Amino acid sequence: MARNPITIDVLETLDAIERRGSFAKAAEEMNKATSAVSYAVQKLEEQLDITLFQRQGRRSVLTPAGRLILVEGREILQTTAHLANKAKELATGWETHINIAVESLQSYSSFFAVLSEFLREHPTIEIDVRESVLNGGWEALEQGQVDLIVGSPGPVPLQKGYRAIPMKRLDLLPVIASCHELAVFAAKPETLEVLLSKVRRIITHDTSMTSVTRSAGLSSDGKIFYVQNIDQKVAAIRAGIGIGHLPRQRIQAQLDSGELIPLGLAVVPVLENFIAWKISNKGRGLRALTQGLAAALG
């Protein structure tokens, strides 16, 4: 097979000429003789049997064929630079990819703010985020599907080799929509039992597939309506389908407007939740990320 004449070196030469506008300025940037730059272009033109540049006054301007090679070539240059950075990071203990499961109850704005700052400092690390509910995060961590879980509820599974950091506890509030036909019973403590005996519970599916699934909050006795995540649960309760516990920070606006009404239950749970990863994971990227998450959310 004939050797491909389009090398990284010649792509860098074309890029410099196009950006600087002349062979002489490109040679200066690349610390080469102008004759060496001219020879590299001439050789490529001969091998491909095309013209790459044409003169317009004092500037060297790409022909359509030359423009095609440069546009595609710049993508190759970016890819090779990215590859070199990845290899360097991996050799020095920095991962190229981190998988994260974040609990559906969490405040996504705070979580993604930490990720944004992390990626500004480590732009070559790829992040893959999935949503988890209840035991689903712990199961994903145990099975190696993710490297890090954020906000998974306690207790922390024992003898699994996990390192866990407590997060700020979530204030879960049992609520009903003001548009619900039974909302009138939520106003008085003496009629609350009537409400609880008749109303449908909105429950979020545990994303665990093999572990014993669980639910949190109100009893699941009676009529049930299942959803996949907290966003769906909020929407279902606001639509008047039923009642359930929701994190206060997600629904404060609806509480203030009166759209959602708190239920006057004697005990309101405060959910214990954790940032966790396997102790055996020694990656420097994971360590830096968990430190940022712990500082912001712990």
Automatic annotation (TrEMBL):
Keyword Transcription regulation: yes
Signal sequence range: none
Domain HTH lysR-type: 6-63
PROSITE patterns named in the record: HTH_LYSR (PS50931)
Keywords assigned by UniProt, alphabetized: DNA-binding, Transcription, Transcription regulation
Pfam families in alphabetical order: HTH_1, LysR_substrate
Protein family per UniProt: Belongs to the LysR transcriptional regulatory family.
Descriptive protein name: LysR family transcriptional regulator
Source organism of the structure: Zhongshania arctica
